[in-house]
Design a protein that fits this description.
By secondary structure, this protein is α/β, with parallel strands linked by helices. It folds into 4 domains: about 1-105, no CATH class; about 115-160; about 170-240 and about 390-400; about 240-365. Helices cover about 45% and strands about 20% of the residues. It is elongated and about 100 Å long.
Length: about 400
């Protein structure tokens, strides 16, 4: 057995060292890479596992000692420093077949060249953090972190069973490297599945899930999703949630704000830009309505007109019933100034063609105005943090990652 050498011991938590392994020494060295020089803490451990018989092909021959072998494996970071362990294995020589076996260590993942707890640590952090951050803290490459992560997701998918769909199913389009569709529970705002191709959503709903509990489908203002919902569950109600309507209006009110920003002061231009940015990030119509009211008081000219038009539209979404919302919508159309009508044609025509789904009783009675907004913002944060995740990674982070937290509802 090798002699322990003298070294400086860093502060180790209660989880060190590995169970049943005697720690010999700890050394810290710097490893030079192509671009950076990183420090790695290497701890030498002695394996307690022994062999009594040769394990190769059921040989069962007698063994005799034949020196030691040294193998390095990735392990949990120590004091924010990437760490490896060097395990000293006892080698044997088989007197029957002439091979040199060594006892396997249960705590080691031989495929990854790391401890099992290190693999779990990397996967757990990769669920909620960037791959680059995890790679810098653990000493791995980004590709290795991704491989660890996707291999764990594959094992989780095998254990995952098909289940029934909830009462209110939300079909939401996600635009990343390619357009995908999120199937989620609108009430709890938890994603159920991410479908890569939009044309496969209907088949996926029929083949993977039991749709007997489905009462309504919440869809975007898109004819394809409406057709998918009618095909999957013909008896279900189709409606547009107010959170989707708010996001749709923010995109189609932009031409009006661009027109209002011409030939006005720089302060008014910045106010209009901040309003659009606040609407995309905020949750709750009350806070957005309050910001619009403040902008009407502080701006003038075209900017004041545009803010007033959109503030009146938000009252449609704040209605307590479908009939009241429909009346408010008709009053809003009549109140639009003639100079603003060309910039709101797309918004008005779309809402008129979707009037049955937009002003359905379910959207105003069974579902609140904020349902779905938190999940939509959560998806956007994941996409922006990863700078364009592919389908496999985005699906895993949505389904198995932390649930979305509701953003603040006040300004």
């Amino acid at each position: 057995m090798p002699k322990p050498s003298r070294s400086v011991m860093p502060e180790l938590g209660p989880r060190w060292p590995l169970p049943r392994m005697e720690q010999q020494h700890v050394l810290v060295r710097k490893v030079k890479g192509k671009k950076t020089c990183r420090t790695i803490c290497i701890r030498q451990l002695i394996s307690p596992y022994e062999l009594s018989r040769c394990p190769h092909h059921g040989c069962g021959g007698r063994l005799r000692l034949s020196g030691h072998s040294y193998h390095c494996y990735w392990d949990l970071p120590v004091n924010d420093t990437p760490s490896k362990i060097e395990i000293v294995h006892q080698n044997y020589e088989c007197l029957t077949c002439g091979r040199f076996p060594s006892a396997e260590v249960e705590e080691i993942d031989s495929k990854r060249g790391a401890t099992k707890r290190f693999v779990e640590y990397v996967v757990d952090r990769a669920l909620g953090e960037k791959f680059s951050t995890v790679a810098n803290d653990t000493g791995l490459h980004n590709t290795s972190v991704r491989d660890y992560f996707l291999e764990a997701v594959e094992s989780w998918d095998k254990k995952r069973r098909d289940r029934e769909l909830p009462e209110y199913v939300w079909l939401h389009r996600v635009k990343t490297v390619r357009s995908c569709t999120v199937i989620a529970d609108l009430k709890t705002e938890k994603p159920i599945e991410l479908v890569a191709r939009e044309e496969d959503v209907g088949k996926y709903l029929k083949n993977r899930f039991n749709v007997r509990r489905v009462k309504a489908f919440a869809v975007e203002l898109d004819d394809d999703y409406r057709a998918v919902a009618l095909t999957a569950v013909p008896r279900a109600v189709i409606f547009v949630p107010r959170s989707e309507l708010l996001a749709f209006s923010l995109e189609h009110i932009r031409p009006l704000f661009i027109w209002a920003g011409r030939n006005v002061s720089g302060t008014d231009q910045r106010t209009l830009k901040k309003l659009l940015a606040f609407g995309r990030k905020s949750l709750g119509l009350t806070a957005l309505q309050r910001r619009m009211t403040q902008s009407i008081e502080t701006t003038g000219g075209r900017a004041k007109t545009a803010c007033g038009v959109y503030a009146n539209f938000l009252r449609v979404l704040q209605a307590t019933s479908a009939s009241a919302a429909r009346e408010s919508f008709q009053d809003w159309i009549k109140s639009i100034p003639a100079e603003c009508e060309p910039y709101l044609e797309d918004l008005v025509e779309t809402l008129r063609s979707w009037e049955k789904e937009v002003f359905h009783e379910v959207s105003f009675e069974a579902v609140s105005a904020e349902q779905g907004r938190a999940l939509a913002l959560h998806i956007r944060e994941i996409i922006q943090s990863g700078r364009g995740y592919d389908y496999e990674v985005l699906r895993a982070k949505l389904i198995y990652g932390p649930s979305p937290e509701s953003p603040p509802r006040v300004s």
